[in-house]
Design brief:
mainly alpha
Length: about 140
């Protein structure tokens, strides 16, 4: 003889697979066509490959990078942002801000031979001013 199953003190399981539950199975939605997924993956891989190639082509030295935080005057930061936006509009890709800053530092490193001898901000301004004046005279 089958004994009836005792009821659970909490009641029936609403998630049970029987038709009594409050939830019902959803219809299987059609997955994205395989072609679209493959196309999207290839596009992403291509984008990453292009970024890597662009970094290798650059004039700037590729070496281990260290994260550095610094502050810029608003005027320079706005100019730099504008430079990046204009480059993206004209050329279809942007050169990151950190690359522009690295380029400026490398240029300064080459132009100021005795930068270890700079003792103050005023002296640095004077050296930079003389470099600009020499450049303007030569052009």
């Amino acid at each position: 003889m089958n004994k009836p199953k005792p009821n659970n003190a909490l009641g029936d399981n609403p998630l049970a697979s029987t038709n009594k539950g409050i939830f019902s199975k959803t219809a299987n939605s059609e997955p994205l066509p395989q072609d679209n997924q493959e196309r999207r993956i290839k596009k992403e891989e291509s984008r990453i490959k292009n970024l890597e190639n662009n970094q290798n082509i650059r004039f700037l030295n590729e070496s281990e990078r260290e994260k550095v935080n610094f502050r810029l005057p608003s005027e320079l930061n706005d100019w730099l942002d504008d430079l990046i936006k204009t480059g993206k509009r004209k050329h279809g890709h942007k050169i990151p801000k950190e690359i522009w800053v690295q380029a400026a530092l490398e240029l300064m490193k080459e132009l100021i031979v005795d930068c270890h001898e700079v003792t103050s901000i005023d002296e640095l301004r004077a050296k930079l001013t003389s470099i600009v004046e020499q450049t303007n005279r030569n052009s």
